[in-house]
């Protein structure tokens, strides 16, 4: 027993002792000190076989290149969206428990019920969105498309279930996300060996399905209904460090996993018609690619985005920090559908905070808050309805105000009202109260409340304040408390500002304002345009700020307060996207500043004007002016620009009263102002010119601003420039209207530098570079002669050389050091050369990778310095943003039957991906699917974002490219499939299922494949045989009828190949006149009248234009997995009990074979003659008719004669019988005799044989004796 | 389906080509109303009808509806098909009018486009085939559209009003385009040109060359102007002559200018010397506008083509430096916004202290990640 417990001795593998041992060992072998075997024994590593070496080299190269992936531009944003972790598994496998454990692991917070996606911060740079996936195939398909990581739960006690494999196959089709298996229920194994075996078996099966070595995680057992902490922690670590490869579909399309949904429909509309189309707003992190406003998205069904806006991140990553781990406050969790998340007040609803993750320390306190939020979510009346019923007490002693009170007074736009956004608020305030003051007071109040609320939240005291807050906020405020007071204040300011707007007539955007208001009247408020408008304003402000900045450099000390305001302005613009230019005018000093600004503008304006007035006689024209003139001379379009410019100038001129006071500034700032003006004129105006007027144009078309006369006629006032612009010449040439006089020297000089012969820039001038080179590489040594040439040592620019220079000074005294230095230099040069040389050998792959990297860097850097509002305009909403999407005309069932357990995925569609056409695919029936698929049976496809039912046709491509229709898919082969449906880019994978409803016992995925081609027409054909019959046969020519109906039809097929059933080939020649549709045809042989002639033709088939999106999300709660679309004919027949009437010809009948009757053989006479007599048919000439006289008379016997004859007959019979017997006797006798004779013969032979044997033996003996004697002979003789 | 919902509506016949081309590329239907509605001769002109017919030829499944008077056009684009096509262009506009649009569409066909266009090769309104060959093709090459079959050949020259010219254009198909960064135009290293004359004395071309060289020689010695005198059946139906000049920079930017004689029977006769001189001056003017100081990298005729191909690139940043934007380009930018929701970041580079040359505009955009939906996957 003792020995068993003892540890085994372990040899040391490292350390001094091991080293010593190794050395001794080497010495024992008499190998010396050399460690490296290659050096010690070079012969052993010599090249043995060049071929083998080449082969091994090839192999290593192959392996190396196999590792390469095609490099792609890395487009992941700096702040990536949370990673989507899909927890998938069959029922009762422990999915929810796992999610709960994971959330608890990361956030120290326990969620009681999980509905929909949960977003958590898992690390300093990573967030996770965890979502559960049941075994409804709709959900599985949807989630496989958005998953980054799949946790595949497998019940080890049971083994794999069909859902697991189905999900794996779905994943495979839609780009393979990372998949990690998790084995649960491992505690149900009693014996360790069995457990081990099961683990191994499952692991290997999993590996064959995913890839060898795929991670499989084991969750050993439950403790108090939860998995073991350590294991969950490890799993979490795995998830947080996991790397992902971008999937093509996901990176090329924007998509959103919706984690919140609000109904924005006007409650009045719902009241009048509960089934009316809804307007909803959906929230979620944007992933994948950039999303553009107004683009098309796919929810279930295609919709156009009516508005997108980005919101502050509700589950933000922690700020940059040096710490190793997150503190408790940063471990956020956000899951509005489960009723957890930061406080959020926005356009649509109010969310109440639960006190963050750290508020959950006293675990059970969470319950009531949950309920509160739950009540908010699960409420059936919409927020608007609630708002309508809610009452607000503004002052302590006033009577509570309901929304109807307010509505009655100020509302003139019911449609707007339901939007509950800033606009209505603004209007309402104007109408009812003494607007701004109240508003600001109100907001101040809120502000205070807000602050106190923040405190109260920290103290986690009570909820009622928040509730009150909520009520107040119902009056359409938009801000976010979670972000603290500062931001909120900013946003309030913004609101104030927007309210204040009309008061400032001098703002340079009254144009936009008016257009905005027009839009408002049109009641199709488009916030995009508004955005662009405000964008434009902000740009102007920015440019002003820039101009000012340059000026401030000059006069900062003179006007400190101004710089302060300026800073403020910059701050505001940088801080919140919604800040507009008007903010600068909000306060008094700011307005002062603006006036000073505008005076400057005006000054420069004046200058500009005077400059323009200078006649063009002097040909040296300023470039800018020239550009301007060019533009002026452009007729139509540029008029817009000018008009705009003018209006812009006018706007600038407005506040001139104060200019006198600030006159002293003029000289100082003139130069700055000039630059500023130029900047101003160019940037915003060009932008405005291009993008600002677009909206105007459209409005001009849409507006019915024409006057009415007598209510019947309308005065048509063609918009002057609009008309001639609209119908002018469509030409892309840009004519020069005011050419220079190129004979003048000055003008010529102006472009002389554009040629290679002209002056170059400092850094590119050849002479200069040459000179520099000389300075750099002045010293050189003639190696042959050993002379050292020294150049003039000039001021060196390179750092190394400077260093060396210094060195030189120090070591000048000794010759040796100089030499050393020289060597050093040489070595350095050599190193440089080597490095360059090595780099020069970079492969194509490296170049490509470098290029991609460069592009990625450029992509990141280009818009980095701009604020989000501007970026969104240029590149769209970038992935990682938390966005709110408004969609109109959503079916009411979407809202009524909303179930948070079912994920909603908004998939962005590319250009023309919303169109329909014919989609051709390569398809293969899944090897595990039991049946084969039939053409024209409706089937459900999942392609791109979509799930839809359609009617495909299967085809196979013949060797000549013909696409021939197939009735059924082949069993184990790819075939083509075409359906009419939404266009999806080529190379997209797809899968097909026969039905998505209910649970089927077998594997549900019917087929998989890839999209090959998109088109608007198809070329699938099926075979059509036309038959005809000969009605007249000449030698090789026959007349055929019954194949066509008219001569025209024949004409179409002249020259076509025809064939008889017996295999005689022929060709259609020409139509005949007589029977309509008959034709002449020639064959390679003569036909028989019984032949059937046929022609093989191909008939194009049409595809039914049937496209039916799977609207499983619209089904009532609990029935979401019962969607069934069109039924197949087979199912219909079964349901209605209709039996298929078979074709009579197809039925089997008993085979009745006719007796075959052969004609007698006829041999031609000539042949007969040639035959030998033996084979000649021996036909006697028929005896001719015997003449009557030759005819012998019949013999009539007498009775006596008859008796004699009978006797003779009897005798002859007896005789013949006797003879027969005798013959038999004789035969027997002969046989016996033959036998006896044979016996005798045998005996004789035997005797002879014996005799011969004897004879030969004697003879042999004799011979041997003779031989012996002859061998011995001479010896005996010698003896 | 939401397919019908997102159609666009415009009024007037101006920029018809842009609208139809962008509609085809974006797949959004377009409706154009009030086409010369108040004109004495309302409706579409012959050359526009011919253009629409051309679009119909190179696409599959397009739906075109024109009302009785021709004042309203509804165009629902199909998929670009390509293949071998022949088209007789209207002689009212030159082939350049059609070719400009074809250059935008050709890389996105199902089958490589091989098209023969017949009509007027050079006229005074549109960019001629010579200029497009010299400037647009190198520009397309920057975007990765290249290959053996990428060519534009003038088989016959035809001058207005008779026409009779023939051009062969073939272009390979690409699935995706490369993003470009064209911000440094370099300096002009050579000037090439083509002086052509048909049905007039061959001496005309030589006279043009001499006069053009007399001006350009002051700037750069590397000038070669080819003379192209076409005879017989290759000379079209009307007499005429003209010159097109192209300046190439060290970085592969091409600037062009061209001038043609007045068509027979219209206007006064012009001297070939005047044509040569004026054309050379136009080129200098173009150089002044586009290259002076920082410089633009694409000349005025191809601005919109460059912007379109940038838009249709991958989701990467493309940059190009342009000279002053032509009205055509400005409208094109607006159309790009409405069709593709793409907005360019426009930075103006003011032209230095000396105030020379036109304003330079740095256009930056992120491509929409367009991929050729027509191309068949094998």
From TrEMBL, chain A:
Location of the protein in the cell: Nucleus, Nucleolus
The organism's place on the tree of life at top rank: Eukaryota
Annotated PROSITE patterns: G_BMS1 (PS51714)
Substrates-to-products reaction catalysed: GTP + H2O = GDP + phosphate + H(+)
Single GO BP term: ribosomal small subunit biogenesis
Record field: compositional bias (Acidic residues): 434-473, 506-534
Domain Bms1-type G as annotated: residue spans: 80-245
Chain spans, region Disordered: 1-42, 397-625, 1224-1279
MF GO annotations: ATP binding; GTP binding; hydrolase activity
GO CC entries: nucleoplasm; small-subunit processome
Basic and acidic residues: compositionally biased ranges: 414-424, 1229-1245
Keywords of the record: ATP-binding, GTP-binding, Hydrolase, Nucleotide-binding, Nucleus, Phosphoprotein, Ribosome biogenesis
Amino acid composition bias (Basic residues), ranges on this chain: 1-25, 1246-1256
Family statement: Belongs to the TRAFAC class translation factor GTPase superfamily. Bms1-like GTPase family. BMS1 subfamily.
Name of the molecule in the record: BMS1 ribosome biosis factor
Gene: BMS1
From TrEMBL, chain B:
Cellular component GO terms, alphabetical: nucleolus; small-subunit processome
RNA 3'-terminal phosphate cyclase insert domain segment(s): 183-287
Alphabetical keyword list: Nucleus, Ribosome biogenesis
UniProt keyword Nucleus present: yes
Primary subcellular site in the record, as a coarse category: nucleus
GO biological process: endonucleolytic cleavage in 5'-ETS of tricistronic rRNA transcript (SSU-rRNA, 5.8S rRNA, LSU-rRNA); endonucleolytic cleavage in ITS1 to separate SSU-rRNA from 5.8S rRNA and LSU-rRNA from tricistronic rRNA transcript (SSU-rRNA, 5.8S rRNA, LSU-rRNA); endonucleolytic cleavage of tricistronic rRNA transcript (SSU-rRNA, 5.8S rRNA, LSU-rRNA)
Compartments in which it is found: Nucleus, Nucleolus
Pfam families to which the protein is assigned, alphabetical: RTC, RTC_insert
Highest taxon of the lineage: Eukaryota
Cross-referenced InterPro entries: RNA3'-term_phos_cycl_insert, RNA3'_phos_cyclase_dom, RNA3'_phos_cyclase_dom_sf, RNA3'_term_phos_cyc, RNA3'_term_phos_cyc_type_2, RNA3'_term_phos_cycl-like_CS, RNA3'P_cycl/enolpyr_Trfase_a/b, RPTC_insert
Residues annotated as transmembrane: none
Molecular function GO terms recorded: RNA endonuclease activity
Domain RNA 3'-terminal phosphate cyclase as annotated: residue spans: 10-346
Gene3D superfamilies on file: RNA 3'-terminal phosphate cyclase domain, RNA 3'-terminal phosphate cyclase, insert domain
Similarity comment: family membership: Belongs to the RNA 3'-terminal cyclase family. Type 2 subfamily.
Chain's role: As part of the small subunit (SSU) processome, it plays a role in 40S-ribosomal-subunit biogenesis in the early pre-rRNA processing steps at sites A0, A1 and A2 that are required for proper maturation of the 18S RNA. Activates BMS1 by promoting GDP/GTP exchange. Does not have cyclase activity.
Subunit comment: Part of the small subunit (SSU) processome, composed of more than 70 proteins and the RNA chaperone small nucleolar RNA (snoRNA) U3. Interacts with BMS1.
Protein known as: RNA 3'-terminal phosphate cyclase-like protein
